[in-house]
Amino acid sequence: MLHPTRTNLLLLKERHQTVWDSISILKGRRQALIREFLAATRPLLRSRESLRAKYAEALERLRLSLGHEGEEMIAALAAVNRQDPGLEIIPRNILGLHYLDLTVHQTPLRTPVERGHDFRGTSPHIEETELLFETIAAEMLETATYEAKVKRLEEELHRLSRRIRVLEERTIPGLSANIRSIVQALGEREREAYFRLKRFKQSASRTAASLTK
Q: Is the separation of the CB atoms in 51 and 146 below 8 Å?
């Protein structure tokens, strides 16, 4: 404990108030980040649900395509259908929080004419399979644009919560205990000074009375 003086008591009270102000600011920031987290999480969850359903359907279409066209034909079509969506990673900032964002410059979705084979010579299963997997790729890229942001927000929310918990459960109680101890020590000191002064006055009165006799 600090030396029980009025100066230290004032310093502790100022720090106590400063810590409460810091907690209020941190909670406000956490609330703002929670809103951003929820806004980014909703489309991410919807996209994942959609991806699961489309992936199951795409696998079924691929099975039918393999049965009609054969593995060699599917492998050849996969080789000529490669594409580069033009991905770019861009640093971004949200409420002072830095994270990496993914930007897609070209959608994986294409028309049958834009694909690298003659769609008139293949079965409809191939076209449906290609469309489904391209749709899945497009949705996965869209999901990736949210995941980095959500992960960074989650990390910052955990950090803020830990910081607030330490301040509320350790720092504030410690400061409050020190303040109470100093107030108690100063009170006892004042009472002792009061009794000493009282005894001194009584002694002085008795001495004065004896001198007048």
A: no
